[in-house]
Every structure is written in C-alpha cells, then in structure tokens.
Amino acid sequence: MSRRLLAYCLALAMFSPAIADDYRFTVSNNSDQDIVRIEVSEDGESWAPFDIGSGIPAEESAVLVWDESTDDSNCEWRFRATFEEGYVAYSDSIDFCEEGVVIEFDFDE
Prior knowledge:
By secondary structure, the protein is an alpha+beta fold. It has one domain: Immunoglobulin-like (Sandwich), CATH 2.60.40. The protein is built from one helix and eight strands, in the order H-E-E-E-E-E-E-E-E. The chain has one helix spanning 2-20; strands at residues 24-29, 35-41, 48-50, 61-65, 76-83, 88-90, 94-95, 102-105. The strands form two sheets. Strands 2, 3, 5, 6 and 7 form a five-stranded antiparallel sheet that branches. Strands 4-1-8 form a three-stranded mixed sheet, with no helix packed on it. Strand 2 (35-41) and strand 3 (48-50) form a beta hairpin. The longest helix is centred in the first third of the chain and has 19 residues, at 2-20.
C-alpha cells in the first residue's frame, strides 16, 4: 500500500510544474452588482474578452488565470469590468511581472 502512495506522490510531483507555471491573479468585485464581463488591453485602445465564466458576483473575488498565449506579451495591462446594469469600470495599468496581483473594481449605485 505504501508503494502505491509513493508512486502516486511521484507522479503528482512530475505533473505539478505544469500547474505551477500558470499565472494566477485575483479580481475583487467590491460592488453591489455582479461583474458580467471583463476585458483586457495592452494599449488601452484594443480590448479583448477575458473568460470569467458566468461572472463574478457582487462582494466576491475570483482567481483568474492568464492564457499561455500571453506569455510573450508586455507586463503592463489594463482591465475593464462591465457590471450587470451596464456600468463600465476601468483599472489602472497593472504590472503582471509582479506576484500576487489583485485587481479591485468598485461601483455602488
């Protein structure tokens, strides 16, 4: 039984680096409305959608993962969040070369 456990741990260790390579960051929705869409931009002019599934509920946070297609991009990105009633909030420029990034969006009706 202990050999199986050891084999399982070794197999897990072999696959862990692929998981650890993901760049994760947190988006906090500090508002009274759900965030229904997030878009990202390197230049503040061209925006692309960021997959947030079914959204980020009011007063909650979500951990998001960059797509590996952005691995060779710049460190500085801007975000904009669209709330359920259509209001759009913009972030400052965010440096993703830093660890532990948290993006906060605030909006109260």
